[in-house]
Amino acid sequence: MKSLNHILTLALSLLVSTACSGNRQQVTNNSETQEMMNSNGKTIVVFFSHAGDNYAVGNIEVGNTKIVADYIAELTGADQFEIVTHKYDGMAYTPLINLAKEETRNGELPAYEGDIDLSDYDTVFIGGPVWWGTYPQVMFTFFKNHAADLKGKTVVPFTTHEGSGLANCVEDVAEAFPGANVQKGFSIYGHEVRTGKAKVEKWLKGLGY
What we know:
The strands form 2 sheets. Strands 1, 4, 5, 6, 7 and 8 form a 6-stranded parallel β-sheet that branches. A two-stranded antiparallel ribbon has the order 2-3. The protein has helices spanning 2-38, 64-76, 93-106, 137-145, 169-176, 197-206, and strands at 42-47, 52-54, 58-60, 79-82, 121-129, 154-161, 181-182, 186-189. By secondary structure, the chain is α/β, with parallel strands linked by helices. A hairpin with a 3-residue loop joins β2 and β3.
């Protein structure tokens, strides 16, 4: 009987030890994942944002996506590169969306100003409004110019919208940068961005920032 009790005690101790080891391993893995995100090297936010006449918010001086990009930069310490074109300046909403539809249908690649060397960055946030189911075509000009630059890097898409969510943006980014580690992405209503910093912060915390 004494021997049996001794065996049972040993077995129970082994089970408890194994369970505790498993829990410690789980905590370590979560910690390592978060540490890896925080030590991802340099981060940049690449974005296109449209000021002027916007659906649901009227005529705005600062585009919805720029506000989100500014939140990301503030909360993560990221650099920024804004994709700028003057093609759409001063356009009312209806002519703008009609032009955007034609550009998307024809696969046009409008020019943008300046450029950025992405070689020093390990994490790239990519954001813009949703026009006809995806990012504005000028962003695809940028994608084409940098198609080989994001191999092995972490890419995080985000959008501002008024009902489209992420639309096809994540899939299109993954197609544009096949060697990148493209994340799930984040979307926020354009009319919410001016009071939506907490939502952006919650999302970024989920990524480990």
